[in-house]
Each structure stands twice: as C-alpha cells, then as structure tokens.
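User: I'm curious what two different proteins look like when written out as structure tokens. Can you demonstrate?

Assistant: Sure. I'll show them one after the other, since each token string lines up with its own sequence. Here's the first protein:
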Amino acid sequence: MNYFVFALLAALMFGLAPVFSKIGLEGLNPGVALTIRSSVITMIMLIWVMFNGGAEALSEAGPRGWFFLALDGISAALLGQLF
C-alpha cells in the first residue's frame, strides 16, 4: 500500500471517531466513557508492543522519560477530554 491509501484511511478513522464517541456517550458519564476508552486502547497497545518485541524496551525508558510521557498523557488525554 502506498502513503496515499494510509492517509485516506487515517482521515476516515479520525472522521469516524467522534461519531463513535457521541454514540457511546449516550446516557453515560463522560468520566466513565474516558475510562473505558483509555482501558481498551491501553490493552490494544500493550498487546501490540508485546507481539512486536518491544516489551523489554519499556524498561529502557528512564524515569525522566516516564515522567514526561505521563505528563503528556495527563494533559492531552485526561485534561483535554474532560475540560
């Protein structure tokens, strides 16, 4: 596949994601929805990393890397979604 096809698929997924979110949020607390969303993507990413041989690389990240990546997650995912 070429890059144009990947760009189209990415645009399609980024366009569909808010639709899925609106449907999933119906009658649900946004904090619960964010927890479900984050848990699912965390599991998917952990499985993907393990199958691609990157599990040992998790221990290679130093405390500074973990700290700033955690800040990134807090600011982008948590604060950006809730406020």
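Here's a second, unrelated protein for contrast:
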Amino acid sequence: MSLKYWRKIRLKLQPLTVVHDVGNLRTIDLSESPYLTELPDLSMAKNLVSLILRDCPSLTEVPSSLQYLDRLEEVSLHRCNNLRRFPMLDSKVLRFLEINRCLDVTKFPTISQNMETLVLEHTSIKEVPQLVLTGRLELLLLNGCSKMTKFPENLEDMKSLVSLSLCNTGIKEIPLSIKDMVCLRSLSLNGTPIKALPELPPLLWCLRTQDCASLETATAIINNDRLWHQLDFTNCFKLDQKPLVAAMHLKIQSGEEMPDGRIQMVLPGSEIPEWFGDKGIGSSVTIHLPSNCHQLKGIAFCLVFLHPLPSHDVYDVNFDYHVKSKNGENDGDDKVVFASQKRHAPLFLLVTCVSDHMILRYELGFVNRLRKYSGNEVTFKFNHHGVHSMVRKVGDEIRRPVELKSCGVYLHFDENLPADTDLP
C-alpha cells in the first residue's frame, strides 16, 4: 500500500489518519505538500520502507517514532526549508538519507553503519562525526554546507566511499589521509577555499575544482594519470599553472599510456604555451604538415576563449579541417574534438568565466586521418553547436564560429612509430 496518491492533498494530518491499516504501509510519499506541518506518530508503521517528503516547506519536524521503524530503508527530505529537528535513526537497513536545503538542521544525524547514500546539502551542519566514516557509505554529498570548515583527519577507514562532494563548503584543507580512500572515484571541491591539493587516491577518475579562488598549487596530482582526461581549474586565478602545463607537455612527449586516449585541462589566462609551435589569431589556424606524417602520434590544441561566452545549455566545440594539396585541390572532413553526439565535454561551464580562459587538449585518434596529407597545408576552423536542450533533435543545432582570442596547434611525432600504425 502507498500514500503517493495523497501527495496533492492540501491537508495537514488527514492523509495518514484516514488510513486505518498503517501497519501494512510500505511507502509514504507526501511530496509537494505545501501545508504539511507535521506527521503523526508512526510507531505502528512497522513495515514502512520508504518515507518521501520532498518539497514540504511548512514541515518543521519529523516524529521521534521514526527511530523505532527497523525496516526503514529510505528517507528523503528535499527542500523542507523549515525542518528543525530530525530524530536518531536506529534502522539497521537504512541505506539512503537525504536532507537537502533544510538550513535549520544544525546537527549531523545519527545514522546506521549500513548507510550507503547520505545527502546533507545546504544545511547548517558544522562538522562530520568520525563514526560516520567507518561504515559502508558509498556516496556523501555535503554541498552548500557553508558553516562546515573542516573535514575529519583520519580517512583510512573510508574503504567504501566512491563519491565525495564538498562544493561551496568552508573547508580550507583536504586531509592528507584522503590518499588512502582506495575506492574513491569522484571528488568535487568547487567553490571551496582550499589553497592546495594533496596527493589523491590513485584510482580517482573525476576531480572538480572550479571557482577555487584560493587554490595556489596542484602539483601533488600530476602523477594521477586518470585525472588528466578532464582537469578543470576554471576561475582558479591564484593557481601556479607552470608545473601543470609543463607536466602535460612531458606526458605527451613521454608517450605514456593515456586511459582515455586524451588529455584536457581548463586554465585561466590567455597565454598559449611556448611548445605550441603553430599559432593563430581568432578562430582558425593554418599549419604546414611535414613530410614525415607517418610518425605523427598525436595532436594538441590550445583555445583561448573570450568572455563572456554565449549562454547555451550545451556548448559543444568542434573543428573542420581543410587541406590544400600541392596541386591546389581541396579536401576536407569534419571531426568533433571536444564533444560528440554521444558525449558532451563540459565546455558550457566556461559560461561563468569572469576573464579569458583557455582549454588545452591532446588526443591520439584523430591523427590517423591527417597522416595521408604529408607535405600539405591544413587549416583548422573552430566552431560550436548551440543546443537549446540536453536532448539533440534534428534542426535544433546552430553552428557558428567560436569567438576565440587565439588558438594554437602542436604536432607530436614519434620516430619509433611504424608507418602502418593506427592509433585508438
């Protein structure tokens, strides 16, 4: 039995009191009930599995009887803006708890060691108890907890956490023990006042560091090869970029394996690194391919964007290349660089830039097409597709030149590469 059909009823207690057989309820969903101020005693709802109270702005507290429901697996309180108190939960099977945009919640809830997903975003919680970090937690989201200024120091026991998000908190320092979180794959630190990135877990795949205005150094992550497919330091104006740019160049020259066949990094500024030998003003650049293109292993681009960027839900950057052969004939093809119809790169995040930014990108696979044009002149013209929704439909795309301040191209050759080698 479910109470989901009561969700639009603008009453306080009547939806539950008219249900006589409360003991058989498995789901209570009173989401979007603007006049719901409190819940009755739920101690008899022994079979309750899910309690969903999303967008209930008048709700001020959840009954203490909730702690006696030992079959409760899921509790969601999203945008219950006036929620002040939340009981201790003793359910050994509780695996999902969400308290989101409840600014009056100031204390970290007592939870089971079996919790898997914990969302406590935009609350007034100040600290995370060490005990929380010793269970089966896989996802911990604390975004927008601005009064939280530090994170527990001892993270060695967090063996199961896969995703940690601390965006827009007041946390100034990431504990050194974070490197021991062996299962961590995603770490989000956007908008935090951190000054340095420590050594991070070796299997970390996604790192978000946009708008970290105090960030000065990130050299400790240079050897995290899995992160290089998408490093984004948008609006990190104090960051020492030179070690990162040098490390990218070295990784390209070393020929070391790249997990995704590419490197991408977003940085503030407009100065194209010196190792980009071919440079152009605006949205195109022309280069002359040498005669040894059979040894071409990869190609890197540096695009310097003017701000502000046009506002689109998705901002896909692509390029056309046009080859002028020795006899004056033209050939060409289209190649999507920073996005494809199956996967979008996060260039649309640059819409929020407050000054010029550049994207450095290196990839392997595209050079298979260029090798046959040894000795010819190639012009790269950069475009973008503005799409008005996340779902692509025929006719929705508008293709325009990207407004760039400048751009650069770097060709990477490997003298040991056999002539018939195809790159992934």
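A detail about the second structure: The helical segments are 14-17, 242-254, 367-370.
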